[in-house]
Amino acid sequence: MEWGFRSAEECVGALRAGDVSSVELTGEAIARIERDDKTINAICVPDFDRARAAAHRADQARARGENRALLGVPVTVKESYDIAGLPTTWGMPPHRNHVPNEDAVQVSRLRTAGAVVLGKTNVPLGLQDIQSFNEIYGTTHNPWDHDRTPGGSSGGSAAALASGFGALSIGSDIGGSLRTPAHFCGVYAHKPTLGLAANRGMVAPPGPALPTDLDLAVVGPMARTARDLTLLLDVMAGPDPLTLGVAHHVTLPPARHDRIGDFRVLVLDDHPLIPTGSAVRAGLQRVVDALAAGGARIERHSPLLPDPSEAATLYTQLMFSSSAAHFPVDAYEQLRIRAAALDADDQSLAAARLRGMVLSHRDWMAADNRRQLHRHGWRQLFAEFDAVVCPITPTPAFPHDHDPDLLGRRIDIDGVAYPYLDQLVWAGLATMPGLPATAVPAGRSPEGLPVGVQLVGPMYEDRTPLRLAELLEQEIGGFQAPPDR
After folding, report:
1. CATH (residue range 8-258+466-476)
2. What does 188-236 look like in DSSP terms, one character per residue?
């Protein structure tokens, strides 16, 4: 029996029943990677010797009667997480030899849960792209079409899952970096509520691994089933023990409902700042049809929805203020001159990006205050709805585009070109206010590419969109392996 595409839950059950050993699961995963990753290039830092040793220890632990959540299950980890003894480069050539001596807190949690870490997955330069390529490790290809990207910045993790390289992976998300690769590769991902999962050790080199309250970014789980997302989130959730002095497990409220028919869902398929491509629109409609067939209450408009145009502008300014905070003085000064030359009436996202990169602390505080108003608006909306269903990006996976000028790139939406970074607005819908969002497969495009949508839920009610994802998987199906896998 082949185990490459089995869920983590199935693997745990088989391990408990004695139907397979961790050494067998791990050996099969390594053989699959050695056979298939030459063309995909998802695993940029293999750690096979230590994985085999960890699998042997897991089997010994199970023989002693131990029974941990992921005991013996092979997994992968995004390159940006510190793993003791392996390089953490974020794809940046000056840091190709940066080797931390301590595991990131989430890697420690994986190991404590008994997972077997196969290695690290590829990322874009500095994690700052919707693709996954860099000078150190090269380009990761989408398992469905090697001429297309698997997404970014957790693209290596999504490609690994779609290729059967381990049952689970962990990634991170500020601009859809969990959700977009899941959408492009046909797998599942969950962007947790802001601050729910500790992020220490997921830091750009050579920075020290310190507990940090990130403004927008989160770390989160990726998997091939919705139930596996919940399994892995339960391992990841909780604050950093360094901030409390003791390890602390967080208790999330249960899902609001257990049946599709009890859910109240707001569906968003149009954004005022960018069109939704026909393939994504069709995938969204498949989900809506399944919800309607299950008896869910569906609305397509609500006066409670915070203004999506202002939300996109706020998100853009907040994110780019963070990304440019460490630019060299000369580069920053050039940006400041360009921003000062903008027309005051220019409300484009390109202008928001430029203004964001040179945002003063005073203006950042004003933007943050508007964010709090949006958060309050979402609280009111989630008193009337349980989930919001919307796109992740406007299109399925696009062809590789290695133009170094991100601002000059374009994204093709049904034959019309739009600024490349404008596609981030749907990711920002959940990111800016810090809401949980679950990426789920929603079928395939006419070209045969995966299409996903996101289920956005109330803050700290992560189990609600996760449960809805589970119910939808039962109705419309979930992950399917690419044809040549």
Report:
1. 3.90.1300.10
2. EEEEPPTTSB--TT---TTS-------SS-EEEEEESSHHHHHHHHHHH
Cα end-to-end span (Å), the chain: 15
According to DSSP, residue 276 is labeled: P
Residue-by-residue DSSP string for 468-483: HHHHHHHHH------T
Contact, 121 vs 76, CB < 8 A? Answer: yes
Cis peptide before 433 (omega within 30 of 0): no
pLDDT one-digit tens code per residue, 193-237: 999 999 999 999 998 999 988 999 999 999 999 999 999 999 999
Residues whose CB is less than 8 angstroms from the CB of residue 411 and which lie 6 or more positions away in sequence, other chains included? 394, 395, 398, 417, 418, 419, 420, 422, 423
Domain parsing of the chain, residue ranges = 8-258+466-476, 261-412
- DSSP type of residue 255: P
Enter the pTM of the model. Answer: 0.97
| DSSP 8-class letter at 271 | B
Element (H, E) at 438: strand 437-444
Amino acid at 53: A
